[in-house]
Amino acid sequence: MTAVAGTSSAVVAGLTAAALATVGLLGHQASVNVPAELRRPSAGGAPAASEAPPGGPRPAAPPDRSGRGVRVVYSLGDDRVWLVGGDGGVGRTFGVSPGTVDPAPGTYRVTSRSKRVTGSDGVPVEHVVRFASVGGTAIGFSAAVDGSAPAPGPKARTGGVRETRADGAAMWRFATIGRTVVVVP
């Protein structure tokens, strides 16, 4: 019986080591892919680098087939958001850091907003703009009050799409209840 117990312990230890290595690798990959503007909060609420300077060039156009009219465009593949005005021009674009649950590509509407709450990862967030729900997990844009990007565990179900505080303030002004949100692959 001792040989079986020793073999079982070795198998469990090996599986545990492999699982820890996998989680470490996934954590590293996630941290490397965090957009630069989310790695450090902007000091004193200074304008984000993604905001076009007055009289400067306009931000890049949103992806093709991302709808028409006034809308928020969220690209799952690029982890990027565009705030598009009535003339089709982009008023602002910025990188985001998604949670662990993504909405399906499609067209949504802003359904609720909260000035300040605690996110599903336990971090205080502000300027929360919700537009979807997947399996009971609310999906929405928000900015961490401390400027951090999410670092949820692999099993956590989080729907917060994090943006910088400056980008969160711009989203808050733009994405009122009923505003169209187009999610593209």
Automatic annotation (TrEMBL):
It comes from the Bacteria. Residues 41-53 have a biased composition (Low complexity). Residues 39-69 are annotated as: Disordered. This is L,D-transpeptidase. The lineage of its organism: Bacteria, Bacillati, Actinomycetota, Actinomycetes, Kitasatosporales.
